[in-house]
Design brief:
alpha+beta, two-stranded antiparallel sheet, 6 helices, 11 strands, about 20% helix, globular, CU044_5270 family protein, membrane, CU044_5270-like, transmembrane helix
C-alpha cells in the first residue's frame, strides 16, 4: 500500500475527540482504502507496505506487512526484529553509497542478526503527506485468539488506544497484495533468486497487469526489509534480490524525515503527467531500513519513517504506559 492509503486509514481510525477544530481536510485525503491514487499511475500501491486500517480486512508496511496465521498452538516460528543496536556483522570501514553496495552491506548485517519471536509484532511509525503527519503504534497479534490494537499519538504526547476490530493473526500481515501467515513468511526462500521466483508467482496471480514485475518486486522487497516479521536470512535475501533488480539506483546520502542519515535507493517511472519515484532509505552500517518516500514531479508526496519494529509478549499494553 502507499503512504496515501496509510494516511487515509489513520484518519478513518482516529477518534473524533482528537480531531482539530480547523476546517475538514479534503475528503480525497481521508477516504479509506482501496481508493486509487489520484496523482498518477506511478503511485501504484506498494504490495508489502504496512498501514493502519481499523475495520478493514487486512493490515498491509511498507511499508510496509501483516499476518494470516494458521498456527493455533500459541507459538510462532522464530523470526527477527529490526536491529536496534550494534550490527551483528562487521560493516565496511567506509560505508558504500552505490545501490548495490548499500543493499549488499545491509544484507550482510541483516542475515546475521539474532532471531526472536513473541505474541505480538510491534511497530511504531510516523507517516506524512504534505503538511499532515501522525505517529502511531500497532500491536499486531501473531497468535490466534489475541486481539490487535493501534495507539494514536495525541498532540499532548499521550497515546489514544484504538482497538483494531476484525484484525487478528489471520489477517494482520500483507505481502504481495495478499494476507500471509507467519509460517508462510518463515518458509520464504533464503536464496535471492528463489525468493524472486517465489514472489513473481504471486505477481502473476494478483496484480500482474497493473504493476510491472520490477515495481512489484521492489515494493515486495521493501515490505520484507522494512517491517514484515521475517527471518534474518529472508531479510538478507530480500536485500540481495533488491540489489540485483534492474533500474534500481542510489541517490546518495540523505536524511529521513526524522533527521536520520541513510542512503536513498530508488526506482523511477514515467507517469501520466510526471515522473514518480519510490525511495527506500537504508542505513548500510546497521542494516536497518529507515523508511520510504514517494515523490512525484520532483516533489515529496508522502513518506513513512519506521521508529521501532520488534517482538513482544502480551497482554496488550495500557495506553498510559506507552512512551
Amino acid at each position: 500500500m502507499s503512504h496515501r492509503d496509510t494516511l487515509r486509514a489513520l484518519t478513518a481510525a482516529r477518534p473524533n475527540s482528537l480531531d482539530p477544530t480547523e476546517p475538514p481536510a479534503d475528503p480525497m485525503t481521508i477516504m479509506s482504502y482501496p481508493q486509487e491514487e489520484t496523482v498518477s499511475r506511478t503511485a501504484r500501491r506498494p504490495v508489502g507496505r504496512l498501514v493502519l486500517a481499523a475495520g478493514l480486512p487486512a493490515v498491509a508496511l511498507a511499508v510496509t506487512g501483516a499476518i494470516l496465521l494458521g498456527n493455533t498452538s500459541g507459538t510462532v516460528p522464530a523470526v527477527t526484529q529490526e536491529p536496534t543496536g550494534a550490527p551483528a556483522a562487521s560493516a565496511p570501514a567506509v560505508p558504500p553509497t552505490d545501490a548495490g553496495g548499500v543493499l549488499l552491506a545491509a544484507a550482510l548485517v541483516s542475515e546475521t542478526a539474532a532471531a526472536s519471536d513473541g505474541d505480538y509484532w510491534v511497530l511504531r511509525a510516523e507517516n506524512g503527506e504534505g503538511s499532515r503527519r501522525g505517529q502511531h503504534q500497532m500491536w499486531l497479534a501473531a497468535v490466534e485468539g489475541l486481539p490487535s490494537s493501534a495507539y494514536m499519538l495525541r498532540a499532548d504526547g499521550s497515546w489514544a488506544p484504538r482497538p483494531m476490530q476484525g484484525h487478528t493473526a489471520a489477517n494482520n500481515f500483507l505481502l504481495a497484495g495478499m494476507p500471509r501467515s507467519v509460517r508462510e513468511l518463515a518458509a520464504l526462500p533464503t536464496d535471492p533468486a528463489q525468493l524472486k521466483k517465489h514472489l513473481l508467482r504471486w505477481h502473476d496471480v494478483n496484480d500482474g497487469e497493473a504493476e510491472s514485475a520490477q515495481e512489484f518486486l521492489f515494493h515486495a522487497g521493501m515490505g520484507l526489509v522494512i517491517d514484515l516479521p521475517v527471518s534474518p536470512r529472508v531479510r538478507g535475501a530480500a536485500y540481495r534480490m533488491l540489489a540485483a533488480l534492474p533500474g534500481v539506483t542510489s541517490l546518495g546520502r540523505v536524511t529521513d524525515q526524522r533527521g536520520r542519515s541513510g542512503v536513498a535507493i530508488a526506482v523511477t517511472r514515467q507517469g501520466d503527467f510526471a515522473k514518480a519515484q519510490t525511495r527506500l532509505i537504508v542505513d548500510p552500517v546497521t542494516g536497518r531500513a529507515l523508511g520510504s518516500e514517494s515523490w512525484s514531479g520532483g516533489r515529496l508526496y508522502s513518506w513513512m519513517v519506521l521508529l521501532d519494529a520488534r517482538w513482544a509478549d502480551g497482554p496488550l499494553p495500557d495506553a498510559s504506559t506507552l512512551g
